[in-house]
Specification:
single chain; 191 residues; Pnp Oxidase, Chain A; seven-stranded antiparallel beta sheet; 4 helices; 14% helix; binds flavin mononucleotide
Length: 191
Amino acid sequence: MKKALGPSDRLYPMPCPLVLSGTMEKADALAVAWIAIGGAKPPTIVMALRQSRRTLELIRETGEFTVNIPRAADAAVVDYFGIVSGHDHDKFAETGWTLEPSSVISAPLIAQCPYNLECRVLSEVDNGSHVLVIGEVVESHAEESILDATGDKVDAGLLDPLIYIAGSREYRRLGEKVGDAFSAGNALKPE
Ligand SMILES: Cc1cc2nc3c(=O)[nH]c(=O)nc-3n(C[C@H](O)[C@H](O)[C@H](O)COP(=O)(O)O)c2cc1C
């Protein structure tokens, strides 16, 4: 038996990166659970931001932003970026988290987040409740300590990313590997 729960804005799970805009001198960042990959050539990010966000103002000023994937161990800092606004807080001064330069764009990366995407805004769509910001990913960075044996892919276990569960409003971390993508299904193909 399934129970109907009504129209829902919840997916299980959701990512919870910090999206940053601005410059090395003046930056703001916020927690964003409503974010996804929206295309491949060029690689594209789509995220839903409320009009009131200070970070959205900076995205509009500069046309640039970075997506910074935090570690599960940093849940409290990420939550802080998601509960106070740059309108009246300097979140970097208050958390002690720091910026480092991007390589292609002016918007910096968050040093404490081990995986980062540099993005340029392609377009905006206003859907009433949120602005959908669509951006092209122009560069990506990973700390060497989270790379797998090939040296060019992120090892999910080493990254240990923060996961957000909307319904119960809690943060979690990834569990164990359960299969190989694009090949586990081969076992079900008819002979
Ligand atoms: C777990 C979590 C997820 C969030 N996801 C979003 C989101 O997807 N879009 C959004 O506009 N705000 C989201 N927020 C709220 C913003 O992060 C929050 O309002 C933040 O204080 C805005 O900061 P700013 O005004 O400095 O940009 C989220 C907050 C939390 C705690």
